[in-house]
Amino acid sequence: MNRIQQLITANFDRYDGKDIEAYIRLGGFTAIKKAVEQGSDYVIDELKLAGIKGRGGAAYPTWKKWDAGRRRVAEQKFVICNADEGEPGTFKDREILKKDPYKVIEGMMISAYIFGAKKGFVYIREEYWDIQKTFKKAIEKANEAGYLGEGILGTDFDFTLEVFSGAGAYVCGEGSSLIESMEGHAGRPRIKSPRIGEKGYLGYPTLVNNVETLAGVTRILEMGASEYARYGTEKSKGTKVISVSGNVNRPGVYEVPFGVSLREIVYDVAGGVENDRPVKFLQLGGISGPLVPGSALDTKYAYETLDEKGFTVGSGSVVVVDDNNRIIDYLVSVSDFFYHESCGKCTPCREGKRQLTRLLKKFVDGTARLEDVNAIEKVANTMKHASFCGLGQTAPTAILSALKYFMPELWQLVEEGVHENVAEGEWK
C-alpha cells in the first residue's frame, strides 16, 4: 500500500490555484454536473458508499448530515464552509484553500444544491488574509464563468458565494460560535437545541462543513464512490489529509490512506525524527487531542483502531515530540493556549483553565505536591464533563492522557521539588 496518495490533493501543484480554465482542464466542475444531472438521491448514495465523515474533527457521517438537512423545509437556507482553522498543529485546510480553491467552491455548490440553499459563505480566519484575497478572486472568476450566480449549468439552480472574515478567535471553529460572530455577536457557543441545521444563520437552517469535507465530496463524485472506497479500511474508507509537524525531518501536509500505521506516518511519510532521537509521544487531532506514547506507534491510523485505544483522528494533526522534551513543558504550552482562547461563557472552562494553568506551573517551578496531582485530575475531569462546548470539553484531553501515560515523569518532578525544598529548609 502506498503511504502517500493524491485523491483529495490530486490538483496540488498542477495549477496555480487561480486559473479557473486550468481547473476545468483538470476535470473541474464535473462533480457538480453529475450532482445536477443525477439528483440528490444519487449524491447521498455516493457519499454513503464512500463513507466520508466530517473532517473538521467531529467525524459525523456526511451523508447523514446532508440527508437530514435536505428534508428540512424553510423559506431560506444557507451553507457555510468552516475555514476557521485555528487548531495549533493543524494546517491542512490552509493548503487546500491555497492550492485548490475551486475544488472547495465546487463542494460548496454541491452542498447548496443538495441542501436547497441559494447563499453560501466561506468563513476564513483573519490570519489567512492572503487566502481570503485568493478566494475572493476565485469566486469572482467562477461568477464570470457562469458557475455561480443564476441559472447555473442551464438549470434553475441559483447560488451566490462570498468570503466572511473571522476575527481570530479559536472558539469560532465551533459551528454555533462561528454563526454568532457572523451575526455581529460575541463568538460564543449557543445553547442546543435547536441545532444550527434547524436554526442557524439569521434563524434559518444552515449547513456547515469543513474545507476538507467539501473538497472530499467533490473528489468522490469526480472519481466515483466505489473507486474512492477502495482505499482505506472497511470502517474508515478513503484517505485523510494530515498535517505533520514537530520533531520530524519533513514536516508538511500529506494525504494518506486510512490504515497506515502511526510509525509509517512518522518514519516513511515525514522522514523520521530529527537527529534520530526516539519518539516520546505524538499528539493527534490538534492541540485538543490526546497524547499517544511512543510505545503505540504501531497503531493503525483509522477511526476504529484509534477509538479503541482512546485516541482520535480529529482534525488530522500529527505533532511528533521526541524524548528531548519534558512532558510538563508541553502541557503548560497547551494549557496556556486554552486559557487564552476560552470565551469565558461557562464556569468549568473559564475557571478550570485558570486553575489548571496555575497547577501545572507549580511543577515547572518545583513547588508541586501530591495534592496538586489529584487537583489537576479533578479539575480536568470536571471540565471534560461539565463544560458548555467542545473547547472546554477537549481542552484537558492532553493533560488527562499525560496522567495516564506519563505519571512517573510528573511524580519525579514532585519528588525533586520536595527534596530541593527540604535541602533549603522550606519543607515542613
Report the principal-axis shape: globular
For the largest sheet, list the strands in their spatial order: 6-5-9-7-8
Structural class, judged by helices and strands?
A: alpha/beta
Q: Taking Cα atoms only, what radius of gyration do you get, to the nearest Å?
A: 23 Å
Q: What proportion strand?
A: 5-15%
Distance between the termini: 61 Å
CATH class of the largest domain reads Alpha Beta
Number of strands: 9
Largest sheet: 5 strands, mixed
Characterization of the model:
The protein has 428 residues and is an alpha/beta fold. 45% of the residues lie in helices and 12% in strands. The chain is built from 18 helices and nine strands. It has helices at 20-25, 30-38, 40-50, 62-70, 92-99, 101-115, 129-144, 175-182, 211-223, 225-228, 262-269, 303-308, 327-341, 347-364, 370-386, 390-394, 397-405, 407-423, and strands at 78-83, 119-124, 160-165, 206-210, 239-246, 252-257, 279-284, 291-293, 317-322. The strands form two sheets. Strands 6-5-9-7-8 form a five-stranded mixed sheet. Strands 3-2-1-4 form a four-stranded parallel sheet, with helices on both faces. It is globular and about 75 Å long.
Task: For the structure shown, list the relevant keywords.
4-stranded parallel sheet, 3 domains, single chain, 12% strand, de novo design (two linked rop proteins), Rossmann fold, 428 residues, alpha/beta, 45% helix, Ubiquitin-like (UB roll), 5-stranded mixed sheet, disordered C terminus
